C-alpha cells in the first residue's frame, strides 16, 4: 500500500518560525525519495467545514486538508494515534533551520489523486535525501498563528 511504500516518521522539527518559535513535529523519510514520486498518503475522516471548525475550537483541528465543496479531510485523530505521519509535514514558508538559520525550501507538493481518492505528498523533480525534512507550501491563505496554541 502506498502509505507504507517508503518508511517515513515524525520527529521534532529542525525548523522554527522566523521569530524562533518551535513548530513541533516534522516529517522525514529514512530512505532517499526518487524524483516525482508519490511517497506518503494522508489518513483521516471527511467532515464538513463546519464540523472541522467546531473541532478546531475544541483544540482538535490542527491537521485538516481542504477537499473542495466545503469538505475537509480531518487527520487529527489519526495523527495523534501515529497512523498519519504525513500530517506532521510542514509548510516551507516563513521557517528557518534552528541551527544554520537557512530558510526552509520546498521539496515536495501536496496533490489529490482522483483515481486513488487520496491526498498524497509527491517529491519534486529531484531526489529528497534520506532524513531531510519534508516541506511543501500549504497555500497563500494559510496562517500559522491560527493553528499554534
Write a structural description.
This protein is mainly β and 149 residues long. It has two domains: 1-40 and 91-140, SET domain (Beta-clip-like); 43-83, no CATH class. It has helices spanning 49-57, 76-80; strands spanning 8-12, 15-17, 25-29, 38-41, 45-48, 64-68, 71-74, 90-91, 95-97, 108-113, 118-123, 135-136. The strands form five sheets. The chain has a three-stranded antiparallel sheet, with no helix packed on it. The protein has a three-stranded antiparallel sheet with strand order 5-7-6. Strand 6 and strand 7 form a beta hairpin. The protein starts with 7 loop residues before the first strand and ends in a 13-residue tail after the last strand. 29% of the residues are buried.
Amino acid at each position: 500500500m502506498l502509505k507504507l511504500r517508503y518508511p517515513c516518521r515524525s520527529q521534532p522539527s529542525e525548523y522554527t518560525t522566523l521569530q524562533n518559535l518551535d513548530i513541533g513535529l516534522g516529517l522525514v523519510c529514512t530512505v532517499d525519495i526518487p524524483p516525482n514520486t508519490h511517497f506518503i498518503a494522508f489518513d483521516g475522516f471527511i467532515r464538513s467545514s463546519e464540523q472541522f471548525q467546531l473541532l478546531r475550537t475544541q483544540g482538535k483541528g490542527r491537521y485538516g486538508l481542504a477537499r473542495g465543496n466545503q469538505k475537509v479531510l480531518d487527520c487529527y485523530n489519526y495523527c495523534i494515534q501515529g497512523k498519519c505521519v504525513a500530517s506532521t509535514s510542514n509548510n516551507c514558508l516563513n521557517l528557518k533551520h534552528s541551527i544554520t538559520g537557512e530558510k526552509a525550501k520546498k521539496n515536495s507538493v501536496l496533490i489529490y489523486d482522483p483515481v486513488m481518492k487520496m491526498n498524497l505528498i509527491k517529491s519534486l523533480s529531484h531526489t529528497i535525501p534520506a532524513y531531510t525534512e519534508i516541506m511543501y507550501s500549504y497555500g497563500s491563505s494559510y496562517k500559522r498563528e491560527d493553528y499554534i496554541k
